[in-house]
Amino acid sequence: MRYVSFRRPDGTPSFGRIEGETIVELATDGAPSLKAALTDGSLSGLANGASYAAADVVLLPVIPDPAKILCVGLNYAEHVKETGREQKAHPAIFVRYADSLIADGQPMVKPAVTERFDYEGELALVIGKPAHKVAAADAWDYVAGYAAFNDGSARDWQRHNIQFTPGKTFPGTGGFGPALVTPDEIDDLAALRVQTRLNGELVQDQPVSDMIWDIPTVIEYVTAFTPLSPGDVIATGTPGGVGDKRTPPLYMKAGDKVEVTIGTIGTLSNRIIDEQ
User: Fold this and answer.
1) 3 with 18: CB under 8 angstroms?
2) Per-residue model confidence as pLDDT tens digits over 55-99
3) Which of 22, 23, 90, 178 is the most exposed place for a label (fewest CB within 10 A)?
4) Structural domain range at position 98
5) Are residues 6 and 128 part of one domain?
6) Across-strand partners of 194?
């Protein structure tokens, strides 16, 4: 299944299931949001509501209101190499906040305080049930589905000190969508390629299998230090090819179009605008 959060034509937030060019609303049978339906376990049993043409609604981030967004840094060897950093024995984890998220088709906002606004195409996963101290062998049971993510980064703010977070969570900088794609829709997740295009130019392209720490390892590590709830998000890291490490550097600016494609999971597409 492919689920989306969206605003109805009247502006009311809702969620539903994608069927071709139609969205079948599901927020009519108790659960007010996709996160709520994951939380109470009702998602697969919700009755169909109204149908809308996809063109008539405005998408929201897949989960508009996650309680936690955890991001894995330096999870592809090519990216570690281009940064010149030492490979560590454990994943690098930083956080984002929900107000940094934007949906497919909505503008990513270049912060006014930086000229070094960089793309980072990533695979994101959404947690489907409470997860605490999960063993890697059991981790797949806790994944509700996947979506594309763009971890838009203000590189100068990221490097003000040794912590990444200041450069990683400006409002409107985290693209997330278009849909939550359930695991049964994906034949071979590891074979899917994380591809980023800036104005049509392919700038990142690596398979999920190139991750240093795979998804079960990341879930085991994260849930060892913090419990996760349904709707929480883990962005699993970006491949090599980031703009900050190119010669000359390649940063996003107003008017640019950035797209993150992950095989059958789909394409997240956003235009860049300046912060007003």
Assistant:
1) yes
2) 999 999 999 999 999 999 989 988 888 888 788 899 999 999 999
3) 90
4) 69-274
5) no
6) 206, 262
